[in-house]
């Protein structure tokens, strides 16, 4: 459990916002681009302040994470204990695929103009050191619903329980205050989904559509989304923090949900994906996937805000240690 000496986390546990921009970037290989990115890490907090102060009630925040390979070439050893490439699960049509990504930016605010301004400023600083490989502008649909029309985020941990489930503590003390984040961009077949009755949709999700109340155990199928994503360890529920957003382009018939889940280690999210895509037991898979297809997949380590600020000093560590494990303290 994180204690009072834990470094300040990034805005992982900030409340759900109305708007978000999700940017996935790859970094050009070479010392020049790596230097640019390391320096930029130290500028992020100042840019959030510069943009956010102009609209203090809009709750602007930014979380920045790094992929496994990027961590090696940007910062070297030591490495966050559970950072590894995204693990693909499933097969055929029902597959969680891994796609390229060195940096993830999760920019949130209650007004899209702030997200837009911050994304623009962050990218200007990075210049041609990076390529944007995925960009999604997300919104909350009416009363915090996602694209499939259900309220999304109800079972998120809240209050003190949110950092307990998402922020690294003494189990990896060099990286305390950090977190892990998994993202997947899903497209929905809305014609097929809308062809279901509300009762059929409710059995797939495991909750009532209008009221958001959980279905009674007697009628909730074991393959419902909520059953398969509920994980117990020694009688304790392991929660993750989700800030999913709807996105789309009606003119192009594109309707999506951007899944983003934070946790203290990637393991519970990976277990949930296994349950959804393969099934618990195998074959008893998540029927939401009959109407939804994951087109991206990435796993990123989110350093604490303190470590993010200190990363510009990590250049020589990367050059000298590359991917060697080490017990050297970071700060
Ligand atoms: C197509 C993408 C997805 C959609 C539309 C979606 C939608 C929903 C909805 C509507 C709920 C019920 C309300 C709530 O508690 O938030 C829910 C619950 C949940 N989802 Fe998803 N979800 C998606 C993908 C995922 C993925 C990929 C994971 C994890 C790997 C996940 C994990 C969870 C968890 C942990 C819960 C709470 C379960 C509970 O405690 O009852 N979801 N999701």
Automatic annotation (TrEMBL):
Give the InterPro entries listed for this entry: Dimeric_a/b-barrel, Dyp_perox_C, Dyp_perox_N, Dyp_peroxidase
Top-level taxon: Bacteria
Instruction: Kindly list any coiled-coil regions of this protein.
Output: none
Domain Dyp-type peroxidase N-terminal, by residue range, is 10-140
Cofactors demanded by this protein: heme b
Occurrences of domain Dyp-type peroxidase C-terminal (ranges): 145-306
**A molecular-function term among this protein's GO annotations:** metal ion binding
* Keyword line: Iron, Metal-binding, Oxidoreductase, Peroxidase
GO cellular component labels? cytosol
| UniProt family annotation | Belongs to the DyP-type peroxidase family.
Name of this protein? Putative iron-dependent peroxidase
Q: Tell me what organism the protein belongs to.
A: Paraburkholderia tuberum
Lineage, highest ranks first: Bacteria, Pseudomonadati, Pseudomonadota, Betaproteobacteria, Burkholderiales
């Amino acid at each position: 459990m994180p204690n009072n000496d834990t470094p300040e986390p990034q805005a992982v546990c900030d409340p759900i916002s109305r708007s978000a921009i999700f940017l996935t970037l790859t970094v050009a290989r070479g010392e020049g681009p790596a230097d640019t990115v390391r320096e930029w890490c130290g500028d992020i907090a100042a840019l959030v302040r510069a943009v956010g102060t102009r609209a203090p009630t809009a709750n602007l925040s930014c979380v920045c994470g790094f992929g496994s390979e990027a961590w090696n070439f940007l910062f070297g050893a030591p490495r966050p204990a559970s950072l590894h490439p995204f693990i693909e699960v499933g097969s055929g049509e029902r597959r969680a695929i891994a796609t390229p990504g060195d940096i993830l930016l999760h920019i949130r605010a209650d007004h899209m103009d702030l997200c837009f301004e911050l994304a623009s400023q962050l990218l200007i600083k990075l210049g041609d050191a990076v390529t944007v490989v995925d960009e999604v502008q997300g919104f909350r649909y009416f009363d915090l619903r996602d694209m499939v029309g259900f309220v999304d985020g109800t079972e998120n941990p809240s209050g003190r329980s949110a950092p307990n489930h998402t922020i690294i503590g003494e189990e990896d003390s060099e990286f305390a205050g950090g977190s892990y984040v998994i993202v997947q961009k899903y497209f929905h077949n809305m014609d097929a989904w809308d062809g279901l009755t509300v009762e059929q949709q409710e059995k797939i999700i495991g909750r009532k559509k209008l009221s958001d109340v959980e279905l009674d155990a007697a009628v909730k199928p074991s393959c419902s989304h909520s059953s398969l994503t509920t994980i117990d360890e020694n009688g304790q529920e392991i929660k993750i923090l989700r800030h999913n957003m709807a996105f789309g382009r009606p003119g192009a018939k594109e309707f999506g949900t951007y899944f983003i889940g934070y946790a203290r280690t990637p393991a519970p999210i990976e277990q949930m994906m296994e349950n959804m895509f393969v099934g618990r037991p195998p074959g008893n898979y998540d029927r939401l996937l009959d109407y939804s297809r994951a087109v991206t997949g990435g796993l990123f380590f989110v350093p604490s805000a303190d470590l993010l600020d200190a990363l510009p000093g990590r250049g020589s560590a990367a050059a000298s240690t590359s991917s060697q494990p080490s017990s050297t303290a970071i700060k």
